[in-house]
Structure to design on (244 residues):
């Protein structure tokens, strides 16, 4: 008898554990806030147009959206969403949440988000102090590297632009890596400007580029190119440009 009771209790526990994920899914109502247009600071202050986004069980039939205790919107079909403007509400800290109703009549409660509605001037001030300087910095760094490379073109392995130079594994000559060449991790799948062959090339060190330059300028092919007439050089450049 005791053995039968232990078996019954063990089976009951297994059934409850198996049903637990189903109950958890039924009771879950997840709320997030998406910024559609405007300012969203790092400390929870927001301004502009935002949207409630809710995820819930498949049996969900209606979702009500609240700001503090005020009902601001109702949605009766998925995707569960409601858009609002912070300017339509008083400035300050607000609590945002949602409730849902299932086909079985259960009422679900979402998590609560706390946000501070701020004036538009706060967003412009943030852009002026943080966003715009970051954009300018992202533009100035590549430009300064490019100009620095041009000014130091007489240095060993310099003058190949912001993407650096590479040594072709096919012909062993140096060339500037192209901006349009696709990145493959730390390497680029690029075409050599000398032999026209494609290969994976990494950014070469100054010493590697200097050795490749020495091979290139000392090769018979380069010497013959230097002896070409301007018309022949132009014709060769036109023929090679069709690969770029």
């Amino acid at each position: 008898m005791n053995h039968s009771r232990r078996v019954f209790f063990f089976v009951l526990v297994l059934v409850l554990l198996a049903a637990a994920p189903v109950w958890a899914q039924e009771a879950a109502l997840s709320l997030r806030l998406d910024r559609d247009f405007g300012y969203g600071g790092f400390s929870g202050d927001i301004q502009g147009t935002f949207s409630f986004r809710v995820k819930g069980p498949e049996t969900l039939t209606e979702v009500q959206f609240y700001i503090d205790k005020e009902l601001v919107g109702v949605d009766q079909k998925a995707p569960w969403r409601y858009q609002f403007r912070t300017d339509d509400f008083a400035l300050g800290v607000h609590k945002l949440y949602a409730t849902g109703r299932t086909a079985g009549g259960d009422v679900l409660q979402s998590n609560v988000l706390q946000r501070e509605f701020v004036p538009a001037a706060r967003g412009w001030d943030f852009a002026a102090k943080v966003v715009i300087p970051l954009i300018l910095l992202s533009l100035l760094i590549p430009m300064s590297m490019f100009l620095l490379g041009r000014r130091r073109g007489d240095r060993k392995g310099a003058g190949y632009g912001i993407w650096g130079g590479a040594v072709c594994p096919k012909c062993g000559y140096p060339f500037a890596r192209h901006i349009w060449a696709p990145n493959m991790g730390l390497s680029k799948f690029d075409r050599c400007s000398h032999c026209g062959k494609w290969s994976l090339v990494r950014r070469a060190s100054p010493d590697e580029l200097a050795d490749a330059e020495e091979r290139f300028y000392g090769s018979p092919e380069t010497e013959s190119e230097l002896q070409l007439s301007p018309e022949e050089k132009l014709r060769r450049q036109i023929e090679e440009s069709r690969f770029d």
User: Anything to note?
Assistant: The longest strand covers residues 30-40.
